[in-house]
Design brief:
alpha/beta; six-stranded mixed beta sheet; 18 helices; about 45% helix
């Protein structure tokens, strides 16, 4: 849902009001602008502020549709020739009704089909003050055939014109919302069409297989089909099935990078969990006190760690309690640990046995008390899913601290162990290095290897595609028509990812996430 500051809601309300209250005949309200055909007023031409909301030096207002040329002539005073395509021209921007000068800025003309939407398009680069933007939007609303754009409508028109595939559209949306370097790289790679080309290649292979199966059904009795054509189809579908299964075995890296890594801080009361949260986000996000059980609810903060998006959560200390509020906090903490991509298990160094050789067994037992039972292996805890943070290391004698560090460094069966002090910041650099390495392994490198899945809907459609291919295998020797239907269903499922088949029902879901003007 788009949320605008009140001043810009006012701007938008003016534009919409102008559109809705324009009840006079077109001939009375139309700036004819030297013979521009008024019949274009019946077409759908859209306009919006595309540069984002907030005071700025320059704002960009975008117009797309057949009436764009009317807006350009009326508001830029171009009575004869249009400007050269994609060339900035400095003009006075005027109200087509009152002829009042609204601003002085740049206009750019993008004739179809060489524009973002594939339609005739115009951009007005104006000063970014609210009064200027209001005036220009209101003036555009007075031009016949114009209406305010809906969220994502420019991009939707680009998709419908074949300028962008559906996966490229999703990549563009991710690029707009990208907050970290890794997210930007992944979005740019998808927007370039690499993921779409992979799916299109699979689509072409499925079409070829389906054509061969249907040809065999229709013409095999006439001996017009070569022997072994079904064996070739079998081989192609087996290879394709293997590729899809490998593509799905990505451990949700692309989806995790897109939405952010869920990192949860968990442990016993007074271990220093909230202090660790405050240290990582470099602000007092959580209350810290010596009283056990201070944190009752989940405290969340978004971070950028080495270019990767992280949603860091501090949770209530894990202990048995008679307090109903604290018990609810503990329940929420355990629930959040179950959902976590990475759990930082914080331990108070004061509770570690003085004999360093006893520390590994103590820590293993502590991990079992914190982590869900399904994450407790018989041998070793997953290296990239958990980190042990031994906090308050400044309270240990130097000799004991060094002995403990050596003893735990190469212990098998434990996740990486970091000794830190949130008070003195000792060990924090090494901890951040280990944390970044763990997060990077969870997200992967967005620029290396094959393109990864970034959307849950991609995964769902690919799983449906594999299920349909299994139908082909099931009926291949008994009912070839049902087997062919399995290939057809697989093709439909794959087409829903790229938007080539059955796209209409998913377009609204995708485009609603775009902002107005994009």
């Amino acid at each position: 849902m788009l949320s605008l500051p009140s001043i810009y809601r006012g701007i938008w309300r003016v534009a919409v009001h102008t559109l809705r209250t324009r009840g006079t005949p077109l001939s009375r309200n139309l700036c004819t602008c030297d013979g521009v055909p008024a019949g274009l007023a019946d077409a759908e031409t859209i306009y919006a502020l595309s540069s984002g909301h907030g005071r700025c030096g320059v704002a960009v207002v975008r117009v797309s549709g057949p009436a764009s040329v009317i807006a350009l002539r009326c508001m830029a005073g171009l009575t004869h020739n249009l400007p050269s395509p994609r060339t900035a021209l400095l003009r006075s921007i005027t109200d087509p009704r009152s002829k009042e000068v609204l601003d002085r800025g740049l206009v750019l003309w993008f004739p179809a089909p060489h524009s973002f939407t594939g339609e005739d398009s115009v951009e007005f680069h104006i000063h970014g003050g609210p009064a200027v933007i209001t005036g220009v939007l209101q003036a555009l609303g007075s031009v016949p055939g114009m209406r305010p754009a809906e969220a994502g409508e420019f991009t939707r028109r680009a998709f419908q014109a074949g300028k962008l595939g559906l996966t490229e559209v999703e990549g563009l949306g991710d690029l707009i919302h990208a907050e970290t370097e890794a997210q930007r790289r992944q979005a740019l790679r998808q927007m370039s069409g690499e993921l779409g080309r992979l799916y299109q290649d699979w689509t072409h292979k499925l079409k070829r297989c389906l054509a061969h199966v249907e040809a065999f059904i229709d013409f095999s009795e006439d001996e017009l089909i070569e022997d072994g054509v079904l064996n070739q189809v079998d081989g192609s579908l087996n290879d394709l099935q293997t590729e899809m299964e490998q593509h799905l075995k990505d451990e949700r890296r692309g989806e995790r990078l897109r939405s952010g890594v869920q990192v949860v801080i968990a442990g016993a009361t007074n271990a220093g969990k909230s202090s660790l949260l405050n240290t990582l986000c470099q602000r007092p996000a959580a209350i810290v006190s010596p009283i056990a059980g201070t944190t009752r609810d989940v405290v969340e903060t978004a971070l950028d760690i080495g270019g990767f998006p992280v949603l860091l959560s501090d949770t209530a200390g894990l202990r048995d309690s008679l307090d109903l509020v604290e018990r609810e906090g503990v329940r929420r903490a355990r629930e959040r640990v179950q959902q976590a991509d990475l759990t930082l298990v914080v331990v108070d160094c004061a509770h570690i046995p003085p004999d360093a050789q006893e520390a590994p067994a103590f820590l293993q037992e502590h991990l079992r008390s914190v982590l869900p039972s399904q994450e407790q292996p018989q041998t070793a805890f997953p290296v990239n899913r958990h980190l042990l943070v031994l906090n308050k290391s400044d309270l240990l004698p130097e000799e004991h601290r060094q002995t403990l560090s050596r003893e735990l460094r190469w212990i098998s069966g434990l996740p990486p162990v970091c000794l830190v002090s949130c008070h003195t910041k000792e060990g924090l650099h090494d901890f951040l290095t280990v944390l970044h390495s763990s997060i990077k392994s969870l997200c992967g490198d967005p620029l290396s290897g094959a393109p990864t899945l970034t959307q849950a809907r991609h995964r769902a459609h690919l799983q449906q595609c594999l299920a349909a291919l299994a139908q082909y295998q099931q009926y291949r020797d008994t009912d070839l028509s049902l087997a062919a239907e399995g290939v057809r269903l697989a093709l439909t499922s794959l087409g829903r990812i790229t938007g080539r088949v059955g796209a209409e029902e998913i377009l609204d879901i995708i485009f609603k996430d775009f902002c107005i003007g994009k």
